[in-house]
C-alpha cells in the first residue's frame, strides 16, 4: 500500500477541478438549450396569432388545416429556424474573432467585416440588381476583401493584435461611409431594399433561405470543430501556443477566414444583424465563469436572434421592427460595459 502524499493530493485536486469544469460546461449547455427551446416555442406559438399546444403539435405533424397551419409553416416557423441558424453562424464568428485576437472588442461588427460583407451585398443589390446566391457571393467577397485589406494595412500576417483591431475599426468606418455613398446614388427602390437588408431582418425568411444557410453550416461546423482545439490553445498566447505545437499564423488566418465565411453566409440572408457576433462570446464566457466554449457562443447567438425577433415583432402593437433594431439596442450597453471594464483593468 503506497503512502498518501502531496503528489496524490495535487492529482486529486486537478481531477476534482476538471470534474467541476465538465459539470459546469454541461450545465451551461443544458441551460442554453432550454432557453433556446423556450424562445423558439414563444416565437412560433405566442405571436399575434396564438397557437395552442395541441394545435401546434397537429400543425407540425400535418394533421391540422386552418389559419394556424399557414401562420406556423409560412411565417413563424421559418423565421425561428432561420434565426437559429444565422444566430449560430454569428455567434461562432464572434467567438473565433475574440478567441484568436484575445480581445473582447474584436468581433466582425466592430472590426468592419460585417460592413465589408454589407458593402458587397449593397453593390450587388443596387448597382447590378442581383439577388439570391449572387448576393451571397458578393457579400462573401466584400467580407474577405475587407479582412485582407485590414491585415495588409496593419502590417501583414505578423501584425500585432492591437494594431489589427484598430485597423479593423478604422476600415469599418470607411466601409460604412462607402455604403452611404452607394445608397445616395442608387435608385430609390433599390436603395430601400438595401437599407432594409442592412438593418437586419427575418421578415422575409423562407425555406429556400433556410436550406442555403443550413447547407453552408453542414460544411462549416465540422471545419470549426476541427479547428477549435488549436484556436483554444492560441487563446493562451502566441508563445505558449507555439511551444505546444500550434502553427500560430496559419491557425489565426484560418480562424479569421472561417469567421468571415460564417458572417457572409448569415448576412447575405438576413443582413449584417448588429452586435449578435459581438455579444454572444462575452455572454457565453460570463455563463461559463470565464471559460469560452464555441458551442456556448453558438447557442447564445441563436437565443439572441430568436428572442430579439420576437421582441421586434411583438413588443409594439401594430409595428413590426427589424430584428437588427433590437440587437443594436441591446448591444450598445454591452459595448459600454466592456469598455468600462477594460478601462478599469488598464488603470
Automatic annotation (TrEMBL):
Protein's cellular compartments: Cell membrane
Ranges annotated as spanning the membrane: 28-51, 71-97, 109-128, 134-154, 161-183, 253-281, 319-340
Entry-linked Gene3D superfamilies: ABC transporter involved in vitamin B12 uptake, BtuC
Topological category with respect to the lipid bilayer: Multi-pass membrane protein
Keywords (A to Z) from UniProt: Cell membrane, Membrane, Transmembrane, Transmembrane helix, Transport
Pfam families xrefs: FecCD
Entry GO CC: plasma membrane
Gene Ontology MF, one: transmembrane transporter activity
Biological process according to GO: siderophore-iron import into cell
Transport among keywords: yes
Family as reported in the entry's similarity comment: Belongs to the binding-protein-dependent transport system permease family. FecCD subfamily.
Protein name (database record): Iron ABC transporter permease
Organism: Kocuria tytonis
Amino acid at each position: 500500500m503506497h503512502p498518501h502524499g502531496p503528489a496524490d493530493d495535487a492529482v486529486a485536486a486537478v481531477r476534482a477541478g476538471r470534474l467541476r469544469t465538465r459539470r459546469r460546461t454541461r450545465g451551461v449547455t443544458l441551460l442554453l438549450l432550454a432557453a433556446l427551446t423556450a424562445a423558439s416555442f414563444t416565437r412560433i406559438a405566442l405571436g399575434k396569432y396564438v397557437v395552442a399546444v395541441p394545435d401546434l403539435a397537429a400543425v407540425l405533424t400535418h394533421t391540422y388545416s386552418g389559419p394556424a397551419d399557414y401562420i406556423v409553416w409560412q411565417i413563424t416557423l421559418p423565421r425561428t429556424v432561420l434565426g437559429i441558424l444565422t444566430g449560430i453562424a454569428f455567434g461562432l464568428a464572434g467567438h473565433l474573432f475574440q478567441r484568436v485576437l484575445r480581445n473582447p472588442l474584436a468581433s466582425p461588427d466592430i472590426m468592419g467585416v460585417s460592413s465589408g460583407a454589407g458593402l458587397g451585398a449593397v453593390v450587388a443589390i443596387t448597382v447590378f440588381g442581383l439577388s439570391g446566391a449572387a448576393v451571397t457571393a458578393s457579400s462573401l467577397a466584400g467580407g474577405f476583401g475587407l479582412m485582407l485589406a485590414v491585415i495588409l494595412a496593419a502590417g501583414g500576417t505578423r501584425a500585432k493584435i492591437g494594431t489589427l483591431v484598430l485597423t479593423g475599426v478604422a476600415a469599418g468606418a470607411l466601409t460604412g461611409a462607402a455604403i452611404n455613398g452607394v445608397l445616395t446614388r442608387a435608385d430609390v427602390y433599390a436603395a430601400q431594399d438595401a437599407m432594409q437588408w442592412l438593418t437586419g431582418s427575418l421578415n422575409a425568411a423562407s425555406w429556400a433561405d433556410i436550406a442555403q444557410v443550413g447547407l453552408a453550416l453542414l460544411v462549416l461546423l465540422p471545419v470549426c470543430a476541427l479547428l477549435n482545439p488549436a484556436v483554444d490553445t492560441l487563446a493562451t498566447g502566441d508563445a505558449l501556443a507555439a511551444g505546444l505545437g500550434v502553427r500560430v499564423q496559419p491557425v489565426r488566418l484560418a480562424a479569421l477566414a472561417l469567421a468571415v465565411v460564417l458572417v457572409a453566409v448569415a448576412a447575405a440572408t438576413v443582413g449584417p444583424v448588429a452586435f449578435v457576433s459581438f455579444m454572444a462570446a462575452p455572454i457565453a464566457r460570463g455563463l461559463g465563469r470565464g471559460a469560452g466554449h464555441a458551442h456556448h457562443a453558438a447557442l447564445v447567438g441563436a437565443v439572441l436572434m430568436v428572442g430579439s425577433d420576437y421582441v421586434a415583432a411583438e413588443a409594439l402593437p401594430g409595428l413590426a421592427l427589424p430584428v437588427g433594431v433590437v440587437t443594436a439596442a441591446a448591444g450598445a450597453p454591452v459595448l459600454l460595459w466592456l469598455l468600462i471594464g477594460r478601462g478599469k483593468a488598464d488603470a
